[in-house]
Amino acid sequence: MEPYDPSFPEPALDKNELTGGARPNSSYHDDDQCPSSTTPRKLVSRIDLRVIPVLSILYLLAFLDRTNIANASVFGLQEDLGLERYQYNNALTIFFVPYILFEIPSNILLKKFKPHVWLSGCAFLFGFVTICQGLVTNYSGLLATRFFLGVAETGMFPGSFYLIGMWYKRSEAQRRFSFFFSSTSLAGAFGGLLATAIGKLDGKRNYLGWRWIFILEGVFTCLCSFAFFFLIPSFPEDAKWLNSEERVYVKARLQKDQGNSAAERPIKAKDVLNVFKDFKIFVGGFMYFGLIVPAYGYAFFAPGIIRSYGYTPTGTQLHSVPPWTCAFGFAMLVALLSDRTKHRFAFTLIPICIAITGFGILIAVHNQPHLQYAALFLVTMGTYSAMPVIICWFNLNLGGHHRRAVGSAWQIGF
């Protein structure tokens, strides 16, 4: 078996989660106990097809509905609602209040109600709120819809990472985490193209283009949520698309790598408090905090920044696509190299340095729109490549359902 990633110390696992289970790192080979009807490679490929695409699409829609306000702003949202600059910023910020507060409770509820029920229900809700966002007529209405959008989306990101982490060994996980996380990059690129097309509906049925962006993207999300109910996978212990031998094998290989999952035991308040007794939980939060601020700064303000370079509204949307596309490609390259070398630390530092270079250019250079636009590529490629490595590094070193449910939500929420 591939060893633990040596660049991150293993957090102490809860003793209840290890009762009766072998310690991680014990001698083990993938071929041991594998059902005769399949092979480890084929089984992991089946897991990939059932877990990663549907969760990536789910989060793509969530991130699209979260950040499309930036595209709507280019098409006149602020002018139509009569917003002052600080009011627009308040509308962006209020989303994160419930988003942060409810992440840990959301992951606990996800385990209680099953992933396909909880995540598909949340998807319908944030699609519905997005539609309402396209119908608001004043600042108060915008604030209310952004707040409830934060409530509905709170479980998407930590819940999906929690679920993915319960399916893969650590040596397999980075490419899957990065592909899932890079749906944010695809959402950024896709959002620009969609906004360009939807913006042409400006004036239809007396609705401005920015309203149609919210309405149509929200309707599409609501429709997809019904499919998510049937497509989102459960945890390995409950996966009906695996036979009993395959479920036992998947559970055994993960137990050897990460310890006993303790899936049968509900999460209690004491379990939540026990997680925070490990100081490395707080380190994981600070690691993510250092990157999420510039990441959301770019996601929410990139269209406005690009428009300041002299592009038309349509040109702005189209020029927002290439940086996101390059970020996706670079993130997948970093993930592949990280898994191949079984190392994480260097693959966080290098992208971070690239992002810092981009920010340095933006701070120092003025009145050179082509160079400033090129710097946006460095910012997105660096930031959105380092973030999935940090999340995977932290998440896969948390053993069992309890620590991973709480720890992943804490990291994202912090």
Structure keywords:
414 residues; mainly alpha; 20 helices; 73% helix; globular; disordered N terminus
Summarize the structure.
This protein is an all-alpha fold and 414 residues long. Helix content is 73%, strand content 0%.
Secondary structure layout plus pairing:
Layout: H1 15-18, H2 40-74, H3 77-81, H4 85-94, H5 96-101, H6 103-113, H7 115-133, H8 139-153, H9 156-165, H10 170-181, H11 183-198, H12 209-231, H13 244-258, H14 269-275, H15 280-307, H16 313-319, H17 321-341, H18 346-364, H19 369-395, H20 400-413
Helix pairs in contact: 2-7, 2-9, 2-10, 2-11, 2-12, 2-15, 4-8, 6-7, 6-20, 7-8, 7-9, 7-12, 9-20, 10-17, 10-19, 11-16, 11-17, 15-16, 15-19, 15-20, 17-19, 18-19
Give an overview in words.
The protein has 414 residues and is mainly alpha-helical. Helices cover 73% and strands 0% of the residues. It is built from 20 helices and no strands. The protein has helices spanning 15-18, 40-74, 77-81, 85-94, 96-101, 103-113, 115-133, 139-153, 156-165, 170-181, 183-198, 209-231, 244-258, 269-275, 280-307, 313-319, 321-341, 346-364, 369-395, 400-413. The two termini are 33 Å apart. Residues 1-28 have low confidence and may be disordered.
Q: Number of DSSP helices?
A: 20
Our estimate of the beta-strand percent is under 5%
- End-to-end CA span: 33 Å
Spatial shape = globular
